[in-house]
Design brief:
Radius of gyration: 19 Å
Strand order of the largest sheet: 4-7-8-9-6
Oligomer: single chain
CATH topology of the largest domain: Thiol Ester Dehydrase, Chain A
Strand content: 25-35%
Structural class: alpha+beta
Number of helices: 3
CATH superfamily of the largest domain: Hotdog Thioesterase
Order of helices and strands: EEEEHHEEEEEEEH
Number of domains: 2
Largest sheet: 5 strands, antiparallel
Mean pLDDT: 78
Length: 200
Amino acid sequence: MESNSKLLLDPFVTVGWVGGRPVRLSFSSGADTNGLCLAHWRESRCHPLPPMNVRTAWSLPLDTPFKTTRMLNFGDCDISGTAYYPAYLNILNGVNEEFWLHLGWPWHKIIWEERWGTPTVHISSDFSSPSFFGEELEFEVTVLKVGRSSATFHHDISCKGQKRWSSTQVLAASDLDKHCSIPWPEDVKAALMASVSAEV
């Protein structure tokens, strides 16, 4: 990539991995490559570092909102084939886990190795239309607000363009040994802040 080439991409792009986490470049939209600066380079050992081509498979923009899908399985429904609402919360928890993996902090790493987690301290949900066995639900996860030790998320769930339900959820950073809230690690908070919706 020539130094005068222009980048019209999202604010963070993954260029390598440190300790199983993505390392991102931070830049302003339209800035040339000479203006690139490392935002999350916490260690000098980054492997493998690909050629400076942000359109390769190494690229992992932080999408806003984060989108994913889930199939509504037999075990998620009642005897009539209609989604059973407690199963919705279990599905939502799996979507949250995928969001944190996408962000660069997989739960199995932070729980077992770093000993902190993201328990739910508040959740509210509204159910608009029923969902049925075999349907594929589309999830959109938006970060609304990031505080010292908590973050507020909004979830919109639809199927083929029809809204099915929505939820607002507050997650908190928690020390898993002391069982108390803690401030977000600095790099985690920076990544969450980068994911806050511009429409909020």
